[in-house]
Design brief:
Mean pLDDT: 85
Helix content: over 70%
Low-confidence stretches: none
Shape: elongated
Strand content: under 5%
Length: about 140
């Protein structure tokens, strides 16, 4: 278990670095977008300073990781509400969707598995058996 947790660290670091690099590759100026289309050059420069976009890339990455580690996900550009609050507000709906999907998938899979178990001595016929046979073959061949 500890080795798996240790393996997560470099993967997470690479993913965070990719996020920061993708922000750099996005077309347009994020400071201009946040400041608005009618903002003056001074206002855009101020937004750039406020967001840390005038810092070197390594410093931006460091700030990003530090903020994430402290639970600061930033603020919405449209509403100004903290992103953590927005995610928290929607966590309940996400949990209900997850629970509903789990119930539906179990309700569909359990009878299909029972049917396949009862018919194990007969040749497979139909969608369920064809699908399970093809996914089993794919797993055995290593292509899944």
């Amino acid at each position: 278990m500890a080795t798996r947790l240790i393996q997560v660290v470099p993967v997470l670091a690479v993913l965070l670095l990719i996020v920061v690099l993708l922000q750099q590759l996005m077309p347009g100026d994020p400071a201009r977008i946040v400041a608005g289309p009618r903002a003056s050059a001074e206002q855009v420069a101020q937004v750039r300073r406020d967001l840390g976009l005038d810092q070197p890339l390594l410093m931006q990455f460091s700030t990003y990781v530090t903020n994430l580690a402290s639970g600061d996900l930033g603020r919405s550009n449209r509403t100004g509400i903290p992103i953590a609050a927005i995610v928290g507000d929607r966590a309940g709906a996400t949990a209900w969707l997850l629970t509903g999907g789990l119930i539906v998938s179990t309700a569909l899979a359990a009878p299909a598995a029972l049917l396949m178990a009862l018919r194990r001595d007969r040749p497979p016929r139909g969608f369920v058996s064809d699908h399970s046979r093809s996914s089993s073959t794919a797993r055995l061949s290593g292509s899944a």
